[in-house]
Specification:
Strand order of the largest sheet: 6-14-13-12-11-7-8
Number of helices: 13
Radius of gyration: 22 Å
Number of domains: 2
Distance between the termini: 36 Å
Number of strands: 21
CATH topology of the largest domain: Aspartate Aminotransferase, domain 2
Shape: globular
CATH superfamily of the largest domain: Type I PLP-dependent aspartate aminotransferase-like (Major domain)
Structural class: alpha/beta
Length: 427
């Protein structure tokens, strides 16, 4: 048994019995197919997760039985759709332990969620001389919006460095002593790196930000659905995630914001549904969350996202975290034995992904050849171009794991990589 610090608290992890989850794969229809004549091994979960039958059925049931616009209709279908949509909001609030369902704003995904804060909050609060702080390991979605916000406001954007040639040391927390000053008005950081597998101590980052009066924004795209997440325990101000990373549909995401902050923000978009009264001279806005959901919302996908919350909680997010971490540790050990491989991220505890590079084989070639073996990987810069340049890389190959992956699939990955190296003369 070992204990690993994640999400601001300690998770006790035992050696996990993978056979306990052998029935999980049956819940995912897409996995039961062959690719290039080989059984599919889906290891691209950091890009998007597959959908269990429960989520697919929720979508079909809504469109077959309840499809209608929400909130203002008085007929039966509209009222059922409204109940389902607002019920989904309450379910997501419970999933992350938000104090109030009104703190849940439905968006298109993590990117839109972060952009709402970057535009609405920054426009009202940032000015020349202020500092926005983020980190060197951020996905472009938690970097470019802050570049734009700093440019528009005259604020300065600074970065917490990563440590080590392969970023194996994680964030340089000692640098926060000089970087995190009262001049920092907002600190945005990822919970789990989509390239490195690093799990940041986000509770500590939030605590240190509060000490200087800075607002915090957490990118939880890679942690949501993979481990327990409690926004009140973390003490964050805003948190963003996407449904498709947690067995939910594409096109639906969430921005969590503390109610007292949301009620002070101007809407990012305007139009129908988010107004109290409109005349020819102007309009007044509804309170959160309606003021941030202009137009017809994504009702079906919100309801299916709630089904994904039910599914993951039934499995147990503590167990999911242990399952993913053990697969990542197994993959790290098997891959490190390959000649000429460069592994990124922590050498110890990590989230459920492993990124690597070969000196003489491009990541796109690795992914293409692995696909011949029925294995789905991801190759490229993973929307981490500045980090890649810092590490002296153009791209990496990433294998990422989730609830339906097995040790046998790690063996197939290792065998495929050996074949690829042999073809390119590296083994």
């Amino acid at each position: 048994m070992e204990s690993t610090g994640t999400i601001g608290r300690t998770i006790t992890r035992t050696i996990f019995n993978m056979s306990d989850w052998s029935n999980v794969r049956a819940d995912f229809p897409v996995l039961h197919q062959q690719v290039n004549g080989k059984p599919l091994v889906y290891l691209d979960n950091a890009a998007t997760a597959q959908k269990p039958r429960r989520v697919i059925d929720a979508l079909v049931r809504y469109y077959e039985q309840d499809n209608s616009n929400v909130h203002r209709g008085l007929h039966a279908l509209s009222m059922r759709a409204t109940d389902g949509y607002e019920g989904a909001r309450a379910r997501v609030a419970k999933f992350i332990n938000a104090a109030d369902p009104a703190e849940i704003i439905f968006t298109r995904g993590t990117t839109e969620s972060i952009n709402i804060v970057a535009r609405s909050w920054s426009q009202a609060h940032l000015k020349p001389g202020d500092v926005v702080l983020t980190t060197e390991m951020e996905h472009h979605s938690n970097l470019v919006p802050w570049q734009q916000a700093a440019k528009a406001s005259g604020a300065t954007l600074k970065y917490v460095p990563v440590l080590g040639d392969n970023a194996e040391g994680g964030l340089d927390l000692a640098a926060l002593d000089t970087l995190l000053t009262p001049a920092v008005k907002l600190f945005a950081f990822t919970h789990v790196s989509n390239t490195l597998g690093t799990v940041n101590s986000v509770d500590e980052l939030c605590r240190r930000a509060r000490a200087v009066g800075a607002i915090t924004v957490i990118d939880a795209a890679q942690s949501i659905g993979h481990m327990p997440l409690d926004v009140r325990a973390l003490g964050c101000d805003f948190l963003a995630f996407s449904g498709h990373k947690m067995c939910g549909p594409t096109g639906i995401g969430v921005l969590y914001g503390r109610r007292e902050l949301l009620d002070k923000l101007a809407p990012d978009e305007t139009g129908g549904g988010m107004v109290v009264q409109v005349n020819y001279e102007g309009a007044t806005w509804k309170p959160a969350p309606e003021r941030f959901e202009a137009g017809t919302p994504n009702v079906a996908d919100a309801i299916a996202l709630a089904a994904a919350c039910d599914y993951l909680d039934a499995l147990g997010r503590e167990k999911i975290a242990a399952h993913d971490a053990e697969l990542a540790a197994l993959a790290y050990e098997k891959l490190r034995a390959l000649p000429g491989i460069r592994l990124l991220g922590p050498t110890g505890a990590r989230s459920g992904l492993v990124s690597f590079a070969f000196a003489d084989v491009h990541a796109h070639d690795v992914v293409t050849f692995a696909d011949e073996d029925g294995i789905a990987l991801r190759g490229g810069h993973h929307c981490n171009q500045p980090l890649m340049r810092k590490l002296g890389l153009a791209s990496t190959t990433r294998a990422s794991f989730y609830v339906y992956n097995t040790p046998d699939e790690i063996d197939r990955l290792a065998a495929s990589l050996q074949r690829i190296l042999k073809f390119f003369g590296g083994a």
